Each structure stands twice: as structure tokens, then as C-alpha cells.
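INPUT
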Amino acid sequence: MSAVVSAAAPRSSRAPRGVGLLILAIAASILAYALQGLGLHGEVPKDLAVNGVLFAAAATAGWLAIRRLAAPADPALYPVAVLLGGLGLAMLFRLMDERGRTDIARDQAVWLVIGLAVFIATLWLIRDIRQLDAFTYTIGLAGIVLLLLPIVPRIGYEINGARLWVNLGFVQFQPAEIGRILIVIFLASYLSQRQELLAAGVGRFGLPRIKDLGPLLLAWGASLAVLLLERDVGASLLLFGVFVVMLWVATGRFAYLLLGIVLFAIGAYIGWLALAHIQERVVIWFHALDPKNVNGIGYQLAQGWFAFASGGMVGTGFGQGSPTLIPYVGSDFILAAFGEELGMIGVASLLLCYLVLIGRGLRIGIERRDAFGKLLAVGLTTVIGLQVFTIVGGVLRLIPLTGVPLRLVSYGGTSRVASFVILALLVRASAGARVPTRKAT
Amino acid sequence: MDRQIRRLGFAFVALFAILFAQVAYVQVFASGRIAADPANAARQIRAEYSVERGQILAADERTVLAKSIPNPDQSSIYKFLRMYPGGSLYGQLTG
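OUTPUT
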């Protein structure tokens, strides 16, 4: 009912909430940057003022864009993303400084600014989320092309066993990051048009009829193709997971969820049989700490595990731990670095930030009146939520490790930009959901 | 659809609750045991050199056999160095 009250209030009354959160997010990020310098070298970084002003300016630009282009939108989404991005950058500077590669952290700062520019551009270009509903199959096709682009010889290539990179000569990126968003838009569009059809048919035992299973089996096949051809476990899992969740939400049929889980189990088994590195992941998951593995194949997971344990409740403090013992600490294992230096309190804070993003995203889904908007918000939020759970659960040894970026925080240019596209779409969906309410009163 | 979205929200809360439980286990309840693993030697040595240990004095209570001094290299991960002013003279005792 509070929505009715706030809808009657003047427009400007919404501004202060967002401003406070934004200032907090910027201040916390700059403080983190100062602290990592103090911890590493006993003095604040020399470029603290310059970097601080640049960061604050970039973050404020994005916020002003929301005020101008999507004023009624949820005020919490953007500041939370700024906080995650800022803390991630501070940690990347701290890690790369110790390795003598601050240039890598600086690149990520540039990517953050590019991400913010893309965020503003997306808000500017897409004035109503329903614009995207008009190109169902074009967007779906583009998404699949981007997803499978790394398979193409000559332009696609692999790093660390997974073939998910594309080099177009002038730029290298992971097309699946963008393709994933397009596929969610396609699914939202497709499912919102077919939801009655897919929900209506009831076959034997309350299961969907065989002919209604087409889309589910197609998505399953596509996920398996990504898994077997690109050997990218994370992308495959995410693709199928998001599809099943959206199908379930669209139809309200629990049977789809159950079938999805069964198909997932079959797919995981096929992957396990076909790919040696999946078998190795499972072995490492169970036996990382065995004496024969702890300095071998289990080294990364073990060092991450020790980093968390050494951090304890409050951590060693920024710059005071040894997270650089962990291979690839800036990408997959960045949470372990937070765990060591900021402790359980730091890790829990980061996870709560993600939970806020997820909660707000799902609330947009409920606030939207149109099926397309609902499904889009749910799909994009599920991408964030599943991805965070996959990598955090992997690093914490709850599930086998799957290398996906910790959105907004960890190393990864394409992921950073894609995260801001997702954020822009959620902000746009949120603004659109709140405008009609205001007109109605 | 709204009912499913709410349930999805509960599902995510449940998933994150599992993560929180595991974080609490690794970082608080079992942290001492895990951090004491022999394979975590690099961090243990660092922790040892991060505290200022006391001096070892001879029976005359003036002669310093061993003491800790702050590491002149500020950027080193070892904050203190162990000094043995008598060199190898008292090595049999100080080890």
C-alpha cells in the first residue's frame, strides 16, 4: 500500500533515498582504495585523490542518467552495483599491486567506466522495455549466434580449457556474456506470448504433453552443445537454469521445474562422461585437501579455503593477508581474498549486496503488469543469482568449482559491461512499472 | 506468475542461507583447525613474523641474546625480523 502513498507524493521526494545510498557506496569504495594502500605500503595511494574523483564522477554520471531518463526507477539497484564495482576495483588494485601488475587493475577501472557509459547508452536508447518485445526471433537468433561464436574457427579461441573467447582483431571479448542477455530477452518475449499454450496442455500424470516439451528439450540441447563444444560448464548451466526458471514462472507448472532438474542431472552425467576436466573438477571438489593433491591439482581450492579460514570473523585487514598465494585470485577466487582480508563480515556484506540486487530485481518482476516485463526482470535477476551462487558455492567447496565471474566484483571486462547492461534493463523495467501507477492516481 | 516469483525469491534466500552457513563454518567455527593445516605453512610463517616476540636475556639480565626488530623494509610481508646480537655465540641456546 505504500506504493499508493508514494505515488501521490511529489516526484522529488524519491531523490534523497537514492542520493544517500550513492554517497555511501562511493565513500565506501574510496575508503577501501585508501585502506588497501595503507595496508600494503603504510600510506594511502598517491593517486587517491585523482582516482577517487574520477570514480565519484563516473558513478554520479550514471546516477544522473537514471534521474533524467528513468526517474521513478528503484533507487537501491544502482548504488548497490556501484558499491560492488568499487569494492571489487579496490581489491583488484590491492591484489595486482602485490603482483606488480597495477596495469591490470587499471584496465578494469577503464572497463568499469565503459560499463557505466554502456549503462547510460542503454537507458537512453531503450525508453520502454516493451520495445524489445517486438523483435523476438531476431534477438533470439542474435543471442544464439553470439553464444556459439567462439566455436567458429579462426576467430574463436580457448583460454584455460574453455572455448569462450572471440578475437575480432581489434577487440577480444566473451560473446556469451552479451548473448546470454539477448537469450533472456528472447525467452521473456517468447514465453509471454506462449504462456497459456504451454501452461494449458496436461498429459498423463499431470505432466506436460510431449509436444509442449519442444522448447524445454531445445534449450537442453543448446545447453549441451555449449557444454560439449565450448567446454564451458558455467555458461551451459546458466543457460539451462535460467530457461527452466523462466518456463516455470511463465507457466506456473511445477512439472517443468521437476523435468528441468531431471534433464539437468542427465546433462551433468553426460558432461561428466564426456569431458575429462569435469571429472577432475569433481575429484578436486572432494579431495582438494588430500596430502597428495593439496600442492597439486587441489592447490587453488585449498589455498582459497585456507584464505577464508585465516581471515576468521573480521579478517586480517586490507593489504595484510596473503591472498596472492591463490592462483587466479583476481577472477574466480576474489571472494576468498575478501574472506581473508575483510573476514566473514566482509564476505557476508558482499553476499547481502547481491541478495539486495536479487530481491529488488524480483520485486520489479512483481511490480510489472505485463508478462514480458515480469519474465524479463525474473530472467535477468536469475542470471545474476545463479551465477553468484555457482561461483561462491564453488569457492566455498559446496559444489564443484565452475569458473564464472563474480559479477561486478571480479576481473573481467566483458562481464563488467554485461552486468551494467543487465542493470540498465532492470532499472528501465522498474521505471516503466512505476509510471502507470502514477498516472492512475 | 507473482506466486512463482515470490517462491523464487524464497529459493534464492534459501540458497544464500546455505552460503552464509558455509562461510560461518569455514571462517568462524572450523577456522582454527583449517588454518592450522600443514599445507597452509606460508600463512602460518607470515603470522609468526607479524607479532613482536619478546627478548631473550642472559643471566645478567643485560645481555640480549635475541630480540625482534621492526623490518626496515615497510613493504615486506614480514613485519618483524629476529635479531641475534651475539651472532652464533649463543646459538646453542637460542636455536
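end of record. Chain B touches chain A at residues 1-6, 8-9, 12-13, 15-16, 18-20, 22-24, 26-28, 30-32, 34-35, 37, 39-40, 42-43, 46-47, 74-75, 77 (CB under 8 Å).
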